[in-house]
Amino acid sequence: MMNKPNNLVLLILKYLSENERGLVGMDLVDLMVEKRFLGQEFLTWLWWKSEERGGSVEIPGFGDITVVFEKHMLLEYGEGEYSEKLVCTGLQTELKEARTGLLMGKKLEQARIQIVKDTYEWNFTLGAALFEFRNVRLPKTAATEQGGGNSDEETEGMILERVFLFEELVRIINDLFRLFLKVRITSDWSAELQTIRGWVHASGEQS
Amino acid sequence: MGFVSGSASFIRFGVEGELPSNTLEFIADRIASFSFRDIDDNMDEYSIGWVSVMNMFDAGFRYASFMNGDYVTVTLRIDERKVSPAILNKFVQKEEERIKAEKQIPKIGRTLKAEIKERVQTELIRKAIPIPSVFDLCWNLSESTVLFFSTNKKIHAVLEDFFKDCFGLLLVQQIPYVTAEHLLNDEQAEQLGIVNPEIFV
User: Which of A5, A75, B74, B120 could, after both became Cys, cross-link A101 (CB 3.0–4.6 A)?
Assistant: First the structure.
């Protein structure tokens, strides 16, 4: 039996374990703060990318998948106590407020996304700064719909199928993220940024 | 709702450190040592340990194995006796009133007040029924990654420490920057290190 750790002990343990990790010159807590922009830039880029070809995004080596931004978004501007947040939701909106938010310099922190690859469809909310997958609805398959069944084999089959589908979603997001990174760190970025800025202005001014 | 049914929320960790060559035996042994111990019938305030993903009362994994193919699937169960501040306040005041009447004194000193609060709190915690919470975990042994089915940062810290105590391995949250380092080669990762935030308007 272990005693309940108090908050101070937890903080010290977290600090110690993060320092032991020795991430080259910067620990995880610093990275979470200083590189917070990376995930938000990716999600904002993905919104543009999904609208560029009407919901289709090409994954190199695979082909087209469908990426649709649904009617729920959280935008963020600034940091810490100076940050501003904007929540946009509603089934009939065209995310006008969110588009205007982009024009004001806000970046996407959270969005409800639908991804379709082959016959599989995922619905989930991506928290951009920390890559949090929230309220993930897996594709409907016989095993995910019917539960585990009674036998050990059926239970194992259901668990393995669900694991595969969760991990497949992570793989898709990583493929999209790699696509973004490959542009973001090269000289191609300035041209892509101009196109994105054009889209931000066009969609923000229309709304 | 979690890993085995319905919709789920999760984050990813990377697992750092070496597992011994008798991996499966080692994991089975560690899970057994760190399995959940019930505190319903004793006075303990807090208990944390592994249970089956299929049944939170199955800490011996009798009904479902924690090994599924190349994956370890377990649930982290935490039981905790808690007393709400309003209840604590009420019983502390009640006890103070009783002592004032008994001793025929108008006020209670600071030291005695602190003593009363501590005593009442201990009594109430003993009477409280442990509140259970469960969080599923799926460990991919071949890729050394973990999906953890909670987005609560306090629970992440608890998991990181418990996982380290149990297996002697470190969990590193796969935030975008850390994920990017795995997706890029060394030269590209160096480029990423000098990237600054961009303005999209």
Answer: A75
Q: What's the per-residue H, E or C state across chain A?
A: CCCCCCHHHHHHHHHHHHHHHCCCCCCHHHHHHHCHHHHHHHHHHHHHHHHHCCCEEEECCCEEEEEEEEEEEEEEECCHHHCEEEEEECCCCCCHHHHHHHHCCCEEEEEEEEEEECCEEEEEEEECCCCEEEEEECCCCHHHHHCCCCCHHHHHHHHHHHHHHHHHHHHHHHHHHHHHHHHHCCCHHHHHHHHHHHHHHHHHHHC
- The region, left, alpha or beta by phi > 0 then psi within -120 to 50, assigned to residue B185 is beta
The pLDDT score that the predictor gives to residue B76 is: 97
Task: Give whole-number Cα distances, B105 to A173, B12, B94, in Å.
Answer: 69, 59, 15
Residues 6+ apart with CB under 8 A from A148: A154, A155, A158, A159, B4, B54
Instruction: Collect all residues of chain A within an 8 Å Cβ-Cβ radius of residue B147.
Output: 163, 166-167, 170
Residue A112 gets the label, from left (phi > 0), alpha (psi -120 to 50) or beta, of beta
Tokens, residue B117: 């609060």
Q: Which residues pair with B50 in a beta bridge?
A: B35, B76
- The ipTM (two decimal places) reads 0.88
Asked which of A2-6, A88-92, A99-103 is least confident by mean pLDDT, the reply is A2-6
Which distant-in-sequence residues (6+ apart) come within 8 Å of B184 by Cβ?
A178, A181, A185, B192
Q: Where are the domains of chain B?
A: 11-81+129-193, 85-127
- Taking only the tens place, the pLDDT of each residue in B143-166 is 999 999 999 999 999 999 999 999
Q: Cβ B9–A158 below 8 Å, yes or no?
A: no
Between A105 and A146, the more confident residue is A105
Q: Is B77 helix (H, G, I), strand (E, B) or coil?
A: strand
Q: Which one-letter amino acid corresponds to residue B88? A: L
pTM above 0.90, yes or no: no
Q: Residue A153 contacts by C-beta under 8 Å, 6 or more apart in sequence?
A: none
Q: Considering only alpha carbons, which residue of chain A is nearest residue B197? A: A37
Q: Using a pLDDT cut of 70, give the percent of chain A over it.
A: 79
CA atoms within 13 A of residue A131's CA, in its CB half-sphere: 25
Which residues in chain B are contacts of A37 at CB distance < 8 A?
197-198
Residue among B173, B176, B192 whose CB faces A28 most closely: B173
